[in-house]
């Protein structure tokens, strides 16, 4: 059975990426691992007094994200594809590349929002960085121009 890692950020575009991953999984008798990487500053708020860490806020956000992952897992399984979910906190690129190695993934299916070069230079692109650092083959799903009008 092929192991396919699919990074998720909960954007509307993720459905297209998941659907492509499902199509590929059918072809190779694959199992999907949906991974969401939460930021390290989930429970941090900024106020006049500076930064404040609120563990209950972090817990709430992580619980909401876990619920969303359960829904996505059910969606994948409704298409007859085996699926597991992973939620980690950290730097997305590092976590995705690391999990791919730990899972001995055969493929990473990742979406690319198609920002321009200037955006990528200042902000960066998770897909671009995963391409740079991953030793696992990737299937990059581009966001079509009409999708960018959302």
From TrEMBL:
InterPro entries listed in its UniProt record: Rossmann-like_a/b/a_fold, Universal_stress_UspA, UspA
Coiled-coil intervals, chain numbering: none
Domain (UspA): residue spans on this chain: 2-142
Record carries keyword Transmembrane helix: no
Compartments where located: Cytoplasm
Any one GO CC term of the record: cytoplasm
Keywords for this protein: Cytoplasm
Family according to the record: Belongs to the universal stress protein A family.
PANTHER family (alphabetical): STRESS RESPONSE PROTEIN NHAX (PTHR46268), UNIVERSAL STRESS PROTEIN UP12 (PTHR46268:SF6)
Protein name: Universal stress protein
The organism's taxonomic lineage, starting at the top: Bacteria, Pseudomonadati, Bacteroidota, Flavobacteriia, Flavobacteriales
